[in-house]
Amino acid sequence: MIHTFLCKLEHLLALGGVKKDVTLLVISGLALIISIFHPFALPFDPAWIAIILCGIPIILEAIIGLVTEFDIKADVLVSLALIASICIGEDFAAGEVAFIMQLGALLEEMTVAKARAGIEKLVHLTPQTARVLQNGAETIMPAEQVSVGDILRVLPGESIPVDGIILSGQTSINQAVMTGESLPVDKTVGDEVSSGTVNQFGAFDMQATKVGADSSIQRMIRLVQSADAGKAKIVSTADRWATWIVVIALTAAALTWLITGQMIRAVTILVVFCPCALVLATPTAIMAAIGNATKHGFLVREGDALERLAQVTKVAFDKTGTLTYGAPKVIAVKSSSDTSNNVLYSLVASAEQLSEHPLGKAIVGCFQEDTGLPLQSVSEFQMLPGRGVSAVVDGKQVLAGNQEMLHEQNITVPSTDAASYLEQGCTVIYAAVNRIFAGYIVLSDTMRAESADMIRALEAIGVQPVLLTGDHENAAAHIANQLHIREVHANCLPEDKLHYIDDCQNAGNPICMIGDGVNDAPALKKAMVGIAMGGIGSDIAVDAADIALVDDEIKEFPHLLALSKRMMRTIRINLSFSMGLNFLAIVLAMVGILNPVVGALVHNAGSVLVIIHSALLLHWRKHS
């Protein structure tokens, strides 16, 4: 019964939030100032306001931790110092200790991110209904009721409810949820499709092969959940050392009392050994570093993310949208001898102006940007799902699409150098004018201008870059060669990225993951630190990450790594200073030089110095 009561009390103490804590600290701080100067007569010492508002929650937390979990934290020693100070009438010392400790707790609380809703958003991606064909009739039913072997119909714009194989129809599927690649993939009879991916253009019939918990989107949800549960959290340094601090302080106080017979010296030892500066050492440095990171475009969503980042030895990058812009650009126009490059470019762009396909839109946008010329009028426009487009432009019939479309139209495609572009991971759009092959247009995802310098800066500080991408080998190898990334893993599904991250960390190589897609969410969760592209990144990736890069400018990532290491150095200096000051003060208290009030002021001065030292991180930047 006592255990249950204390657990409920602990829940009540947690209510109220940061605003309540700030209000209590302001009131307590004013009360302590009044206690020092006594500007007017009061029937009680105002320090009691700080004792009640700040001290009682500390004492209750200490009792709850001891009784429910036998957990000795820093608040146990603080409670002892509070009670001992009150017993000998040193009210100000008790109030000041309580105030400093609650200030440290508030700073720590402010560095902890709020609960995130990434898994809920993944659940919302799960299709709720399915169109099932039974005896020639179409029935809409809940997706969870679909069985293996059922025949389903998927219309343009709908999410695929279960995993399966296409039986009839041609289409293009947006597979960004699973692979992270922004361009749709053409699908036809016999091809596999995954739940949660989006059918963009053509209707098709499919047979269900994996349903319910076995479907791709449900496996993704489980991956994110398991990765989050497996990530260890860093324990507060003050709490980690609390047991030893309590033992040392109590032993020193007891021996001093026994040897000198003076209770006031024993109480002074408890006051000066109160780990205020120790408690402030970490959160103040973290908050200053977070402020620095924010100025460079990083939103730190987890309080201990920078502590973990300082440990990483590898950084895994997704390709599309992270190292590249994630948007295809026309990089070459190759026409046949009968047509000039500019004419071919104009004809294909004009034919594509009514297309909803991302490649078609990219050709139109690049043509207008590259030439500044207007598009020609079109007629008889036809979208051919999974193939391309057909249109009449300036009286000429234009076909633009993949090689299969031209073959189906009995148009001969002569030998070209398009293969060299395909080997680099580019996309080739073939074109025919009046049923005669006219050439092709090459599109490629373009690398971010800052990627090469960023990778070089990482290697300069001893961190190994790794490329993890859902793209195929050619595209991955092309980008990796440009950036001189030696370790490359292509064709990665979400579970592949997660397993690589897990294997690295099990081998003692803490790793940071940087990505932008839904498919990166499990790896972002599992990694020692997950960083999401906040601008172009999916909401689910951002929710899964510890840090979000607000402006997508990855050039500042080496600064973030260096900042995290500098922050840990600052924390170690803070800890060494605060512990050294405590031991010096305890010696002075033993010999009677310090009394409780002076002792409280000394360790208060130590807390101020710790805060000032941490504040230097706000404007720190490594000089190259």
The chain-level structural class is alpha+beta
**Helix coverage percent:** 40-55%
Number of extended strands: 22
Largest sheet: 7 strands, mixed
Taken from the alpha-carbon principal axes, the silhouette is elongated
Distance between the termini: 62 Å
What does this entry look like structurally?
48% of the residues are buried. With 624 residues, the protein is α+β, with helices and mostly antiparallel strands. The protein has 25 helices and 22 strands. The strands form four sheets. It has a seven-stranded mixed β-sheet with strand order 10-22-21-20-11-18-19, with helices on both faces.
Give a brief rundown of this model.
This protein is α+β, with helices and mostly antiparallel strands and about 625 residues long. A hairpin with a 3-residue loop joins strand 13 (about 380-385) and strand 14 (about 390-395). Helix 1 crosses helix 3 (about 45-70).
Break the fold down into its secondary structure elements and pairings.
Layout: H1 2-14, H2 17-37, H3 47-69, H4 74-87, H5 91-110, H6 118-125, E1 129-134, E2 137-142, E3 151-154, E4 163-168, E5 171-174, H7 176-179, E6 185-187, E7 192-193, E8 198-199, E9 204-210, H8 216-230, H9 237-240, H10 242-260, H11 263-272, H12 276-295, E10 298-300, H13 305-309, E11 314-317, H14 319-323, E12 324-335, H15 341-352, H16 358-371, E13 378-384, E14 388-393, E15 396-401, H17 403-408, H18 418-423, E16 427-433, E17 436-447, H19 451-460, E18 464-468, H20 473-483, E19 487-489, H21 494-506, E20 511-515, H22 521-526, E21 529-533, H23 539-544, E22 547-549, H24 557-590, H25 596-615
Parallel strand pairs: 11-18, 11-20, 18-19, 20-21, 21-22
Antiparallel strand pairs: 1-2, 1-3, 3-9, 4-7, 4-9, 5-6, 5-8, 10-22, 12-17, 13-14, 14-15, 15-16, 16-17
Helix pairs in contact: 1-3, 2-3, 2-5, 3-4, 3-5, 4-5, 4-10, 4-11, 5-12, 5-25, 6-8, 10-11, 11-24, 11-25, 12-24, 12-25, 15-16, 24-25
